[in-house]
Design goal:
Mean pLDDT: 77
Order of helices and strands: EHEHEHEHEHEHHHH
CATH class of the largest domain: Alpha Beta
CATH superfamily of the largest domain: Response regulator
Distance between the termini: 21 Å
Strand order of the largest sheet: 2-1-3-4-5-6
Helix content: 40-55%
Radius of gyration: 19 Å
Shape: elongated
Length: 203
């Protein structure tokens, strides 16, 4: 059972929609109690912040004083550049739009609890990785490069990728070199990690 602290303007009704299969132990943040008090009371594995960006920032500052800090899932329609740039550094582990379905939110909670970083494909370009700029749209991967990246995430080697796609080994190596350059990475592991962060591949 995953212990979740839900901090949301949508309150208990939203919590009920998330816990239809009873896989989560959800605590709804109480109005009038400070973030520090609620974090101490609940000792959550994952905190879901479903608030305006200013209040999200206030909660994140308190979360990072916890030891160890829980994973943070932010639900936001408008992700300011400041939040995006600092998001992973300050403990963020998942970022979804507020319109995300309950199924998507629960999947993200479970991913965070498992140690994954989850970013919705529709807003992944707004989130910058620490110490690395997100690639501009003109340098995004081609459909074929995304196919190759997905197969790398499955653990396939170059020969297996070539056989599955019906292309030459030389062409596979060309695609890998290209996606390495676009993602600004130097290894297959880094490429897969960056692809997951940007929502290009799922694991």
């Amino acid at each position: 059972m995953i212990r979740v602290l839900l901090v949301s303007d949508r309150g208990p009704a939203f919590a009920a929609r998330l816990d239809t299969e009873k896989r989560l132990d959800i605590f709804v943040a109480r109005v009038g109690q400070s973030p520090a008090e609620q974090l101490e009371d609940v000792e959550a594995d994952v905190i879901v912040l479903d608030l305006g960006s200013e209040r999200v920032g206030d909660w994140i500052r308190h979360v990072m004083t916890s030891r160890p800090p829980p994973g943070v899932l932010v639900l936001a329609d408008d992700v300011p550049a400041a939040l995006g740039a600092a998001w992973i550094r300050v403990g963020g582990r998942a970022l979804l739009p507020r319109r995300a379905s309950p199924t998507e939110v629960v999947a993200a909670i479970e991913g965070v609890a498992s140690g994954l970083i989850v970013v919705h494909a529709g807003i992944s370009s707004l989130v910058g990785s620490p110490g690395r700029r997100a690639a501009p749209a003109s340098r995004m991967l081609t459909p074929r490069e995304i196919e190759v990246l997905a197969m790398m995430a499955e653990g396939l080697g170059n020969k297996a990728i070539a056989a599955r796609l019906g292309i030459s080994l030389h062409t596979v190596k060309f695609h890998i070199a290209s996606l390495f350059a676009k993602l600004n990475v130097e290894s297959r592991t880094e490429a897969v990690t960056e692809g997951v962060r940007r929502g290009l591949v799922l694991i």
